[in-house]
Every structure is written in C-alpha cells, then in structure tokens.
From TrEMBL:
Keywords in alphabetical order: Membrane, Transmembrane, Transmembrane helix
Name of the protein this chain belongs to: Uncharacterized protein
Organism this protein belongs to: Leptotrichia trevisanii
Transmembrane parts of this sequence: 20-40, 61-85, 105-132, 153-172, 204-224, 250-271
Origin: domain of life: Bacteria
Length: 278
C-alpha cells in the first residue's frame, strides 16, 4: 500500500507540472474578463472606452477558450505520456518490479488521471460562472414568475434525476476513455516499430468500433421503447425531450460500464502477459 501511494503521488505531481500553468492562465483570463464586465456595467463611460473594453474582453474570452482547450489536450497528453513512461519507458523497470499486483498499478494510474479530469471539470465549471454576466442576467429580470413556474415544471418531471445520471455517465465515460488510452498505448508497444502510428491506428479503429456498438445499442433502446413517440400533444414536448435525454444518459451509462470493465481486463492482460519494455 505504501508503494502504491508513492506511485500515485509521483504521477500526480508529474501531471501537475503540465496542467497547473493552464489553470493559472485560465484564472488570469477569468479575472480580466470579470474586470471588463464591471467596467461595461458603468453606463457613464465614454463610447470609445466601451468599444475598446469590449474588444479587449473578446480577446480575453478567446484566451480563456484557448486555456480550456489547452487543459483538455494537455490532460490527454499527460495520460498517454505518463502511462507510457512509467510502464513501458525507463521508469517501467521500477514500476513493474514493485511488490504490487498488475491490476493495482492500473488502478493507481486510473485514479490519478481520473482525479485530474474531475479537477478540470470543477475548475472549468466555476470559472465559467465567474466570467458570465450574472449582474446583467438579474438586471434583465429573467427570473420572472412564469419562468420560475417553468423551472418548477421541469423539476416535477425528475430533471434532477436525469442530471445526476448524466453526471455519473460523464464520470464513467471518463474512466472508459482513460482505460481506452491505456489500451492504445499497450497495443502500440506490442510492435517493434511505428509505435506512434500503431497507437493512432488503434485509437481510430477501435474507437470507431466501440462508438458503432454504442450507437447500435442506443438505437435499439429507442426502437423497443413502448412509450417512445406516444406524446402527440405539444404540451408534452418538454416531457418527451426529458425522456429522450434520460434514456440516452442511462444507455450511455450502461454501455460505458460494460466497456470499462472489458477494457480494464484487456489492459490488465496485456500488461501482465505481453509487457515489452524498451
């Protein structure tokens, strides 16, 4: 357990060196955007100042989006490069000789990278609410009684349940995606040469196959749904939309769990029986 904790800590710290600079960049952009919003809320400022502030604010939004894209891409890169280096690279000799089971190594890697994806989601979520013009929304009087009644109608139809299932589905799909990247790296290291091309090919081909299987499963869930398409009254349009979203999230959750289990056992088999260290 002590060795496992050290493995998780080392991976976590190594990934932080790649991602934290993007967090800082996104935080700076968020603060700048918020400052510009306070300036624009002042109705007494000159039109030229308002226009120039709007231009700089747009540039800040662009920088914010670039930071988000960088965080996502860097996280995927960290999964691939850290898994490769610590399993198949020079560090692999140390990792694979630790007195721990193969599945424990995979779980340690999975926990580390999954934690970073969750942290990414939380930070992006809160910074998003930080940069949107909340003052303008309340000033526009959006929260009128009729709007609140519509929100209540949504809640009556268990939208909260659908939201929870949707979040769980996203988390399980993240686990599935990480294990899939593990699999592609493992397949790439089964060949002597053209490993990068092999990994990319495995990602495209296997990803396409898995996506097709998921699509077929989700399609059949709609075909055999007895209530699907039975809402003829336009007043039930909201309920029909909710049902479609609910069924989709439930189907994606089920298929992602199944594929995650399959991917875990395949990766464990390859790491245990087909390990090819450089």
């Amino acid at each position: 357990m002590k060795n496992l904790g050290k493995l998780i800590k080392y991976d976590f710290m190594d990934v932080s060196k790649l991602i934290i600079p993007f967090y800082i960049g996104m935080g700076v952009m968020g603060i700048v955007i918020r400052v510009f919003w306070f300036i624009l809320l002042n109705e007494k400022i000159d039109d030229r100042v308002r226009i120039s502030t709007g231009v700089f604010q747009f540039m800040s939004y662009f920088g914010y989006v670039i930071a988000i894209i960088g965080i996502i891409l860097m996280t995927y890169y960290a999964v691939i490069i850290r898994y490769y280096r610590s399993i198949y690279g020079n560090e692999g000799y140390l990792t694979n000789t630790l007195p721990i089971e193969t599945y424990e190594i995979i779980l340690a890697k999975l926990l580390t990278f999954f934690s970073w994806f969750v942290v990414n989601g939380i930070i992006i979520f809160f910074t998003f609410w930080f940069i949107i013009p909340i003052e303008g929304i309340f000033k526009a009087n959006i929260f009128r009684p009729e709007v609140l009644r519509e929100i209540e109608m949504f809640l009556r139809h268990s939208v909260g349940t659908a939201l929870i299932i949707g979040i769980i589905s996203m988390l399980v799909m993240t686990i599935e995606k990480i294990l899939f990247l593990f699999l592609c790296v493992s397949i790439a290291n089964m060949v002597k040469s053209y490993r990068i091309l092999t990994g990319i090919g495995a990602y495209i081909i296997l990803g396409g196959i898995i996506g097709l299987i998921k699509q077929v499963i989700l399609t059949f869930t709609y075909i055999f749904d007895k209530n699907y398409g039975n809402y003829d009254n336009s007043e039930w349009e909201v309920l029909r939309t909710f049902e479609n979203v609910f069924n989709t999230n439930l189907g994606m959750l089920f298929t992602s769990i199944v594929f995650s289990v399959i991917l875990f056992f395949v990766v464990n088999y390859l790491l245990k029986n087909r390990l090819n260290l450089e």
